[in-house]
Amino acid sequence: MAKLHAYLNFNGNCEEAFSFYHTVFGGPELISHRFKDLPDDPNATLSDADKNKIMHTSIKINDSVMLMGSDCVDSFGQKAVFGNSTYIMLDTDTAQEARDLFGKLSVNAKKLEMDLEETFFAELFSSFIDQFGVAWMVHYEGNKKMDF
Asked: Could you say which of 11, 25, 55, 78 has the lowest number of CB atoms within 10 Å?
């Protein structure tokens, strides 16, 4: 079966975002590749401002899940547009894990859509837009088993 990984694009602050996410999820030291490390290509000229941007980085959440990201490159006409069309949902095994993840990820959140609380479908649930514009949901089903 294929694994599903989340890939996030940023407008120049990927390194800052992933340093923050590393404090949340932990794991090995981040390894990042920058656009300046690409082989020279006469058909793709990078501005000096874009050369130091992150081409690719990742955090291994567990054996099945990775959070990956890169910066968009103005020189290539790319721009990340944030909104509410996609959320990353963290389905936790315990209520404490949900509280811990919510507490860490929601620091300086741009928008708290729903505080971490009990709902009809979960013992704990929250949705928010983090300080980098990424939309998250934290979910602990507990004894609220829903047949979807």
From this structure: 78
- Residue type for position 62: N
C-alpha separations of 43 from 13, 36, 39, 75, 85 in Å = 26, 15, 12, 12, 33
Model pLDDT for residues 73-114, shown as the tens digit of each residue: 987 888 898 887 899 999 999 999 999 999 999 999 999 999
Per DSSP, the residues of 12-63 read S-HHHHHHHHHHHH--SPP-EEEGGGSPP-TT-PPPHHHHTSEEEEEEE-SS
- DSSP strand pairing (66-71 vs 6-10): parallel
* H-run or E-run covering 140: strand 135-140
**pTM for this prediction:** 0.87
Burial label, 117 (beta-carbon count in 10 A; 0-12, 13-18, 19+) = exposed
